[in-house]
Amino acid sequence: MKVGVTGANGFVGKHLIQKLDKAGHDVMALVRNKASMPSLTTCSIVEIPSLNRHVNIQNLIAILAGLDVLIHLAGHVHRMNDTDDDASFHDVNVIGSERLFEAADRADVKRFVFLSSVKAAGERSNDTPLTLENSPGPEDAYGRSKRDAEQALQDMACERTCNLAILRATFVYGWPPVGNFKSVINAVKKGIPLPLASIQNRRHMVFIGNLTDALCHATVSEGLSSTPYFIADDQSVSTPELFRLTGQAFASPTRLFPMPLWILCMAGMLTGRSNTIARLTENLEVDTAPFRRDASWFPPYNMSEGLSLSANADNPSTKDRK
Question: FRET partner for 274 with CA separation of 20 to 30 A, picked from 108, 159, 283, 287?
Answer without folding.
Answer: 287
